[in-house]
Design brief:
Blueprint: H1 4-25, H2 29-32, E1 34-35, E2 52-53, H3 56-70, H4 75-96, H5 103-124, E3 128-130, E4 136-138, H6 141-162, H7 168-187, H8 192-212, E5 218-219, H9 221-238, H10 245-248, H11 250-268, H12 283-289, H13 295-322
Parallel strand pairs: 2-5
Antiparallel strand pairs: 1-2, 3-4
Helix pairs in contact: 1-3, 1-8, 3-4, 3-8, 3-9, 4-5, 4-9, 5-6, 6-9, 6-11, 7-8, 7-9, 7-13
C-alpha cells in the first residue's frame, strides 16, 4: 500500500490521465467496442445508432487499476473489486454483442454478482452502519447479505435505466459520490482510503463527460452504467451509510428505478396491473416526449433536482451535527 500522500498525488492524476488517453485514442475500438443499436421504446434513441458504445470499459479499467494499486490491501477487498469489474465486463460483452442479451440472463448475472459481493463485504469492511442519528448499528450477517444484495441490484439497474440522456448518468454519479463523501465526513466514517476510492471514480468520469455531453460522441453503454451502479451501492456500504442511498439516490430511483418497477409489476401480473399508465418511463423519456424538453433541458432538470435534494440532505446533516445529534 502506497502512503497517503503518494496515493493522492500520483493516483488521482494517473487515473485521470489514463481515462482521458483511453477515451481519446480508444485502442482497438473497431474490434473491441460495439455500436449502439438504439434502445427499444426509448425516445430519440435513433440519434445514437452507430455511435461507439461500451466505452465505459475504458474508464472502469482506469478506475479498477488505480483502486487496486492505491486503495485495496486485503484479499477480500480485491475480490470485491474484481466482482465490480465483472459487472462492468459483462455489461461490455452485452454492448458488443450482435443482439442484446435476454433480460433474464442479465438478471441472473446481477443477482449472482450482488450476492457474492454482499457475502464478502462484512469480511472486507464491516456490516455495521451509521444511522441517520449518528449511532452505529450492527446488521447481523444473515440480514446484511440479502439487504446488501438488494441494494446492489437496485442501484445497478436504476443507473442502467437512467443512461439515456447525454451526460446524465456520469454527472449524477459524480454528484452522488460527492454527496456520499460529505455525509460520511459529517458522520465520521470518512478516512483517506475510502475518500480516495470515491475521488478516483470522479476523476475517471470527468474525461468521459468531455465526450458524452450533448451532442455525445460516444456512449458508456452497460459497461459503464452497470459498473458505476455497482460502485455507488458498494461505496455507500463501504462508508457505512447505505440508507443514504434512499435519499441521494432518488434521481436514479425516480428516473430509472420507476422504469424497472413498472416493467416488473407488469410482467409479474401479466400486464393486469400497470402503474404510471400515463407516465413514460424512464422519466427522462417522459420529459422529452410528453413535456417536449430538449436533451440539454432534460439533463439540467434532472441534475438540478439531484443537486437540490443533496444540498437539502447535507444541510439537514449539518444541522444535526451542530445540534450534537450526529
Amino acid at each position: 500500500m502506497f502512503s497517503t500522500i503518494w496515493a493522492f498525488s500520483i493516483g488521482l492524476p494517473a487515473a485521470f490521465a489514463a481515462s482521458l488517453l483511453l477515451l481519446i485514442f480508444k485502442p482497438f475500438a473497431n474490434r473491441l467496442l460495439g455500436r449502439d443499436r438504439g434502445r427499444l421504446y426509448a425516445i430519440d434513441s435513433e440519434v445514437n445508432k452507430g455511435k461507439y458504445t461500451g466505452v465505459g470499459i475504458y474508464f472502469m479499467l482506469a478506475f479498477g487499476i488505480t483502486v487496486a494499486t492505491f486503495c485495496t490491501n486485503g484479499y477480500y477487498e480485491r475480490i470485491i473489486l474484481g466482482i465490480l469489474g465483472a459487472s462492468s465486463f459483462f455489461g461490455f460483452l452485452d454492448d458488443r454483442s450482435i443482439s442484446p442479451w435476454k433480460e433474464w440472463v442479465k438478471g441472473v448475472i446481477d443477482i449472482g454478482l450482488a450476492v457474492a459481493a454482499a457475502f464478502l463485504i462484512p469480511f472486507a469492511y464491516t456490516s455495521d452502519i451509521v444511522s441517520f442519528t449518528g449511532s452505529y448499528i450492527h446488521i447481523p450477517f444473515l440480514f446484511f447479505v440479502p439487504l446488501a444484495s438488494l441494494l446492489l441490484i437496485v442501484s445497478v439497474n436504476a443507473t442502467n435505466a437512467t443512461d439515456g440522456v447525454d451526460g446524465l448518468s456520469g454527472t449524477l454519479t459524480i454528484i452522488t459520490t460527492v454527496t456520499l463523501i460529505v455525509i460520511a465526513a459529517l458522520r465520521g466514517t470518512l478516512n483517506s482510503i475510502n475518500l480516495l476510492f470515491g475521488l478516483v471514480m470522479i476523476v475517471v468520469l470527468i474525461p468521459y463527460l468531455f465526450f458524452n455531453f450533448y451532442p455525445s460522441k460516444v456512449l458508456m453503454g452497460d459497461a459503464g452504467s452497470r459498473g458505476i451502479g455497482f460502485f455507488i451501492a458498494l461505496y455507500a456500504m463501504i462508508l457505512k451509510i447505505p440508507f443514504t442511498y434512499l435519499i441521494i439516490g432518488l434521481p436514479f430511483l425516480l428516473d430509472g428505478g420507476l422504469s424497472i418497477l413498472k416493467i416488473t409489476i407488469g410482467r409479474l401480473t401479466h400486464k393486469k396491473v400497470i402503474i404510471l399508465k400515463n407516465t413514460l418511463t424512464p422519466l427522462h423519456d417522459h420529459l422529452k416526449k410528453q413535456k417536449k424538453f430538449s436533451v440539454p433541458k432534460t439533463y439540467f432538470v434532472i441534475c438540478g433536482f439531484a443537486v437540490v435534494i443533496d444540498l437539502v440532505f447535507i444541510a439537514a446533516n449539518v444541522f444535526l451535527k451542530l445540534m450534537g445529534i450526529l
